[in-house]
Amino acid sequence: MTGALRSVTSREAGLDSDRVRTIEDLIDEGIRAGVFPGAVALVARGDMVGWQSAQGDAQMTPERRAAALNTIYDLASLTKVIATLPVALQAWHEGRLDLDAPVQSVLTGFTGPHKERVTFRHLLAHTSGLPSWRALYLKAKSRDEVRDEICRTSLETDPGAKVEYSDLGILLLGFALEHITGRRIDELAGEVVIRKLGLHDTMYNPPSSLHARCAATEAGHGYEREKVGENGSKFPWHGSVLRGQVHDGNAHYAMGGIAPHAGLFSTAWEVAIVARQWLRPGALVGAAAVREALADQRHGAEGYPRGLGWVLHHRGTFFDALGPRSFGHTGFTGTSMAIDPDEDLIVVLLTNRVHLGGGNTKIQEFRPRFHAAVRGAVL
Q1: What's the CA gap between 277 and 182, in Å, rounded?
Q2: Residue 288 CA: distances (Å) to CA of 88, 126, 293, 321, 348
Q3: Residue 214 pLDDT greater than 80, yes or no
Q4: Helix, strand, or coil here: 128?
Q5: Residue 4 banded pLDDT, cuts 50, 70, 90
Q6: 309/82 Cα distance (integer angstroms)
Q7: CA triplet 229, 247, 196: central angle to 5 degrees?
Q8: How far is the C-alpha of 16 from the C-alpha of 340, rounded, in Å?
C-alpha cells in the first residue's frame, strides 16, 4: 500500500507483538458477542502502521462477505472531522470564515430568539443550542429545504451555555461554507482533503462498481423509522440492506448522499492518512489551525471538553485509556478514530455495527476496552 503511511512490523512501530494479538482476540470476542459483524482496525505510530486487521464479515445478509483490509465503510459522523472540519479551517486560514462571526452574517435566514448570538465557533464546538437531530427529510426534499428547516428550528439552550452534540449545527456550518465558496461540500472536500492527500477510496456516493467492497449497514433505515414513529408511516423508506449508500437519513433522503455531517465513505488506511495530518501539521491543517482546533472551546459551557469538531480527552470517553492530550470522534455506523500526540499514536476502528440493527449499542462498552488494549500494546 502507498501513501503517507507505510506498513512495518509491530516492533518497528513500537508495539508489543504479543499484546497486539490480544487486540485481535478482543475483536473476535466482539464479533461473537454481537457487537458488530466484522471490523477493520489499524494502529499507527506517526507514519508507521504497526498493526492492521480485518476480521469477521462486511455483510451477513442477504449474502455473506468477509471483511478485508480494503473494505470501504460508511464513516457516518467521521465525515465531520475528515471532510468538513478541514474545509472550515482552510476557510478560516484564508480569512474567508470568521469563527466568531454570527451565523446570521452568512445565512441571513437563520433567525429567531437568541440566534443572533450563535457563531461559527459555537457550531464547531457543539455549543450553539441547536438540537442534536431532527428527521428533516420528512419535510425537506432538497438541500435548500434542509437549510431552511434548520434555520427555522428553535434553539433548545442559550448559545454557549451547554455542549450538545448537534448534526444540525454541522449541517448549518456546511451550508455556510457552500455559500461562502459557491461550491458544494463534496467539491470542497475533494480539493482540500481528498486530492491534496492523494486518497483513492475516500468519497461520497461510491459508484456501483465499488459496492462489492462496501460494508453493508442497516436494512430499510429501521432505526430512524422507529424514531420518527407515526410521522413516518407514509414515508417512502429505502427497503433493502444499504451497501454503498449513506445510512444517515438526512443525507440519504434529502441531500443526495452528500452532506457535511455524514456521507463520506473510506477505508481504515485512508482514515489513518487523514489522522496523520493532525500529528504532522502542514499539508492538510497548519500548526495554528491544529492549536485552535484542539483547544477547549467550551468557554464556560456546561458539559464535556470539545475542540473545534473534535472530542477532547476526558474521563469516561471512548479513548479514556489514551493520553491527556488525545482527541477523537465516532460515527453512528460503528466507526471511530483517536489520536494521541504524546505517543504519536493513531487508532482507527471501522465497523458496521448497524448491520445488526441501528439500536445495537454494544459498541459503547466495547470501544473503551479496545482502546485500553491498544494502549497496553504501546511500548
Answers
A1: 26
A2: 13, 21, 9, 27, 25
A3: yes
A4: coil
A5: confident
A6: 10
A7: 150
A8: 17
Show the DSSP H helices in the chain as ranges: 17-32, 78-79, 85-93, 120-125, 143-152, 167-181, 185-189, 222-228, 249, 268-276, 287-293, 363-377
Measuring CA to CA, how many Å separate 345 from each of 15, 46, 48, 89, 326?
10, 6, 10, 23, 9
Neighbours of 361 (CB within 10 A): 11
Cell numbers representing residue 203 in the block:
468519497
User: 301: helix, coil or strand?
Assistant: coil
How far is Cα 69 from Cα 282, in angstroms, rounded to an integer?
28
- Any idea which residue has 504524546 for its cell? 342
What's the whole-number mean pLDDT along residues 219-242? 93
Q: Which residues lie closer than 8 Å to 154 by C-beta, 6 or more apart? A: 112, 113
In 10 A of CB 22, how many CB atoms? 13
Domain segments of the chain as ranges: 82-192
**What is the C-alpha separation between 33 and 263, in angstroms, rounded?**
28
Alpha-carbon distance of 192 to 285, in angstroms, equals 10
Q: Which CATH class is domain 82-192?
A: alpha beta
φ/ψ (deg, to 5) at 124: -70, -30
What is the arithmetic mean of pLDDT over 311-325?
Answer: 97
Reading the block at residue 269, the C-alpha cell is 488506511
pTM over 0.90: yes
DSSP 138-195: GT--SHHHHHHHHHHSPPSS-TTSB----HHHHHHHHHHHHHHHSS-HHHHHIIIIIT
Distance from C-alpha of 124 to C-alpha of 127, rounded to nearest angstrom: 8
Q: What was the pLDDT predicted at 3?
A: 53
pLDDT digits (tens, 9 = 90+) for 231-254: 999 999 998 999 999 999 999 999
How far apart are alpha carbons 304 and 127 in whole angstroms?
11
